[in-house]
Design goal:
By secondary structure, the chain is of the alpha/beta class. The chain contains 6 helices and 5 strands. A 5-stranded mixed sheet has the order 2-1-3-4-5, sandwiched between helices. A hairpin with a 7-residue loop joins strand 4 and strand 5. The two termini are 30 Å apart.
Length: 167
């Protein structure tokens, strides 16, 4: 019998691929989430067998949490802001350092409806991915989803983060 997923079909299908392909690759993953609030970890744990893949997730919504749990330096947040490539790089590095994972992905953004600025409008989300043993430099990416509503920004950010977790 097919059991319905708590999450939308596109997210559930991609999470299934993340679990299947990382099991096949023998990889464990960690996620450090801000604007997605744990949705990436939740998507992965919707999948039976996800315990073979997900090591841990950090929901570091506040700047204090980013600094305390992930070791993001306060000067990065003060200089570049929480929604910056520099911040998600540090978040991804912290997630890898504080986990047994082989790969970590970090997400931070402005989901809206408020909180946007001219340089970082609502819908701006930054991502970083770091793979253990491949040098210390993470990949970083900035996406502008637009002012499409809080739920849609979070949905698109979750899909993007899941894509980054594919081997």
């Amino acid at each position: 019998m097919d059991h319905p997923s708590l999450l939308p079909d596109d997210i559930a299908a991609l999470a299934q691929r993340v679990v299947d392909e990382n099991i096949a690759a023998g990889r464990k993953v960690a996620v450090a989430e801000s604007c997605t609030g744990g949705l990436v970890a939740a998507a992965i744990t919707e999948i039976a067998g996800s315990s073979a893949v997900l090591d841990r997730g950090f929901v570091t919504y506040s700047n204090e949490a980013k600094m305390e749990l992930l070791g993001v330096p306060s000067d990065i947040i003060e200089t570049f802001g929480a929604v910056s490539i520099a911040c998600v790089w540090a978040m991804a590095q912290g997630a890898l350092k504080h986990s047994g994972a082989d790969i970590a992905v970090a997400i931070s953004g402005v989901a809206g409806p408020g909180g946007g600025t001219p340089s970082k409008p609502v819908g701006t989300v930054v991502f970083a991915r770091i793979v253990r043993g491949r040098g210390s430099q993470p990949d970083g990416e900035l996406k502008s989803f637009g002012d499409v509503g809080r739920a849609e920004v979070r949905r698109q950010a979750t899909l993007c983060a899941l894509e980054l977790l594919l081997p």
